[in-house]
Amino acid sequence: MHSFSHRCCSHHQYNFMNECCYWDVNGSPGTPKPKDSEFCPATSGIQDKKNAAQPHCTEPKTHLCGSHCYDPNKHRCCERKRASGQHDAALYDPDTHVCCDGHVKPGMGQCCGETQPGVFCCNKDREDGEECSDTSIPYNPAKGTICSSQFHGSPGQHCCGTEIYQPGNEICCDGHRYPKEGNVQCCGIKAYNMKDPKMKCCAGTLYNLTDPEYSRDVECCGSVLRNPQEQEVCCSSMDQAVLYSGKTGFSCCGHLYFNMSLWSCSAECLSPVQQPGQQEEKMTGCRLESVNNLNETALCGEIYIGIVQSVSPNSIVFNFVLKINGTNADVRPVPFHYVLATPSRCSTPKLILGKFYFFNDVSVFADFNHDTALQSLYFILDKCSP
Question: Alpha helix (H) ranges present in 121-247?
Answer without folding.
Answer: 122-125
